[in-house]
Amino acid sequence: MVQAAAIIQGAGSSMREQGVDGVRFRQALAAHASGVVVITAQAAGALVGLTVTSFTSVSLAPPLVSFYVDRASATWTSLKLADYFAVNVLADEQTELAAIFARKGIDRFANCLGWRMGAHGVPLLDGTSAHLICHRHSVADIGDHILVVGHVVEAGTTGGDPLLYHRASFGSFVPLSRGSE
Ligand SMILES: Cc1cc2nc3c(=O)[nH]c(=O)nc-3n(C[C@H](O)[C@H](O)[C@H](O)COP(=O)(O)O)c2cc1C
C-alpha cells in the first residue's frame, strides 16, 4: 500500500512522505509477512539473480506480476539488460538458497545446489514450489527502487510449502484451518 500510494501521489508529495519516522516505518513494514522469491535471468551471457520479498501479482488478464529492486543494486545493472526473467518461488526448506541469492561478492549460481535452463534462456532453480517465466513488460523509477513488471509467459508448480519472511526471520506457513481448495 505504501508503494501504491507513492505512485498515485507522485513526486510532489515528497515533503508529506518524509513525515513518518524512519524506524517506525521499517517496524510497520516488518509486521507484514511475505513470501520469498529469487528473480533469475541471463543477461549478456552472465547468470544473475537476487532474493526478493517485494514480489506481487498485478493483473490476471493480461497475466502480470511485479517486484521492486533497489536502485543501488549491482544485480540490477545486469538484470536490466534481460528481456526475460524468472520468478522462483522458494519452498520452506530453501532458507539457505534465499541467503545465497542475497549475498554480495559470491557467484550465487555456483553456490546453489542446482539449476536448469528454462524457456527463453532463463535459469530455473531446483526445488522451488513454483516458477513463472516473464517477458519484461515495463520498468518505472519509484523512490529509491525500480518497479519491474513482467508479463507471464509460462508457469509451473510442484506443490511444495512456501518460505515466508517476517520480522527479519524466515519461517513456514501453518494454516489455522483448512481452506477450500
Ligand atoms: C529476505 C530478503 C528480501 C529481499 N528483498 C529485496 C527486494 O525486494 N528488492 C531488492 O532490491 N533487494 C532485496 N533484497 C536484497 C537482495 O537480495 C540482495 O541482497 C541485494 O540485491 C544484494 O545487492 P547487489 O544486487 O548489489 O549484489 C532482499 C534480501 C533478503 C534477504
UniProtKB/TrEMBL annotation:
<keyword id="KW-0560">Oxidoreductase</keyword>
<dbReference type="Pfam" id="PF01613">
    <property type="entry name" value="Flavin_Reduct"/>
</dbReference>
<keyword id="KW-0503">Monooxygenase</keyword>
<dbReference type="GO" id="GO:0004497">
    <property type="term" value="F:monooxygenase activity"/>
</dbReference>
<protein>
    <submittedName>
        <fullName>Monooxygenase</fullName>
    </submittedName>
</protein>
<dbReference type="InterPro" id="IPR012349">
    <property type="entry name" value="Split_barrel_FMN-bd"/>
</dbReference>
<dbReference type="InterPro" id="IPR002563">
    <property type="entry name" value="Flavin_Rdtase-like_dom"/>
</dbReference>
<dbReference type="GO" id="GO:0010181">
    <property type="term" value="F:FMN binding"/>
</dbReference>
<dbReference type="InterPro" id="IPR050268">
    <property type="entry name" value="NADH-dep_flavin_reductase"/>
</dbReference>
<feature type="domain" description="Flavin reductase like">
    <location>
        <begin position="29"/>
        <end position="172"/>
    </location>
</feature>
<dbReference type="GO" id="GO:0042602">
    <property type="term" value="F:riboflavin reductase (NADPH) activity"/>
</dbReference>
